[in-house]
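Please fill in the sequence for the structure shown.

STRUCTURE ENCODING:
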């Protein structure tokens, strides 16, 4: 009877342990995230200010080294290629950023209004697509210096740009990658945003001409096929657009380990570091990010060997068995003293004659 009680107690303990273990697993789940969290429009605005022309802008958007986008609208396990097309009317240009989601299927992600005002100054606004970001989500960047792309728009070398790439046909540099958990993407994409610029979120779009151009050239194949995935249907908490959604406490990156997939049900990578920097640090060789390489003025506590500024100050360990070499290198090699010959049986020099003072024996 006592043995039976002992076995029953042991079985109950094991069951409780397994139940507690399973409960711990269920608490470590990825928090739900919105589609709009997978492309940061501030990063898009920053790249636009660093591009030379629209062809270069499209290349920066799809660079597999920086991985600016995390969108996978067609849920094929690969981030969608973003093509760039343009339409203009007089002094107003509208740049369309469209996700390539299938054969002859495209979805507007954002548009960029480029327009000259009455003073001749170029104004830029990045407008999120209504289906993706909700209505009236507009970012107005103020660049620290006039972007080079402005010169291209209003210069003699301008020609309308329409991406030649489509579903199944991409540029040689492009290699698709798998999407990451949205909270990981949000934590890492900010290194590609030029912090010297300003990005003002507003709900006012300045150009009516740009609105008319967008209505005539937009593509919304994903929105047409998936009306239930509009921003309004995805978010029933009262958030009007992406800006309101970002104010919610649960929209911040989760600190819990992620073992699941985002709300779209895609296969994702769990640990993401930009391939341009395996250490997960800041992107090198970009104007938008301060240089994090150690300088001679920094404290040499990074674990790396610090070389002295003057090569002549470099000192090598002294060998006690050899004489210390002079600091400056002689113009010709120093001749070492010749080694003595083998031990002579007689002195090297001997007197030529005997001293006269010594008497001779008889």
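FILLED IN BY: designer on duty
SEQUENCE:
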């Amino acid at each position: 009877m006592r043995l039976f009680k002992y076995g029953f107690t042991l079985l109950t303990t094991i069951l409780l342990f397994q139940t507690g273990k399973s409960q711990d697993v269920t608490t470590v789940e990825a928090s739900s995230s919105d589609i709009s969290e997978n492309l940061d429009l501030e990063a898009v605005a920053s790249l636009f200010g660093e591009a030379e022309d629209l062809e270069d802008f499209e290349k920066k958007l799809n660079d597999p080294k920086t991985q600016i986008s995390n969108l996978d609208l067609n849920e094929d396990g690969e981030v969608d290629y973003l093509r760039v097309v343009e339409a203009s009317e007089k002094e107003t240009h509208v740049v369309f950023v469209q996700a390539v989601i299938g054969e002859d299927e495209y979805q507007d992600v954002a548009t960029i209004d480029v327009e000259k005002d009455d003073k001749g100054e170029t104004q830029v606004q990045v407008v999120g697509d209504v289906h993706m970001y909700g209505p009236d989500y507009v970012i107005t960047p103020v660049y620290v210096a006039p972007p080079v792309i402005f010169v291209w728009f209003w210069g003699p070398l301008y020609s309308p740009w329409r991406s030649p790439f489509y579903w199944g046909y991409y540029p040689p540099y492009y290699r698709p990658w798998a999407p990451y958990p949205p909270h990981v993407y949000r934590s890492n994409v900010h290194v590609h945003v030029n912090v010297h610029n300003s990005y003002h979120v507003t709900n006012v779009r300045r150009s009516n001409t740009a609105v008319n151009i967008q209505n005539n050239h937009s593509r919304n194949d994903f929105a047409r096929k998936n009306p239930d995935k509009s921003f309004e249907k995805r978010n029933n908490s009262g958030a009007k657009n992406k800006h309101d959604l970002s104010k919610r406490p649960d929209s911040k990156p989760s600190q819990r380990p992620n073992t699941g997939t985002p709300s779209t049900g895609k296969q994702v990578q769990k640990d993401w570091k930009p391939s341009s920097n395996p250490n997960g640090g800041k992107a090198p060789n970009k104007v938008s990010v301060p240089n994090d390489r150690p300088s001679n003025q920094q404290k040499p506590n990074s674990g790396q060997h610090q070389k002295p500024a003057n090569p002549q100050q470099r000192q090598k360990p002294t060998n006690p068995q050899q004489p210390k070499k002079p600091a400056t290198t002689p113009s010709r090699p120093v001749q070492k003293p010749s080694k003595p010959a083998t031990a002579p049986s007689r002195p090297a020099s001997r007197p030529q004659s005997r001293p006269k003072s010594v008497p001779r024996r008889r």
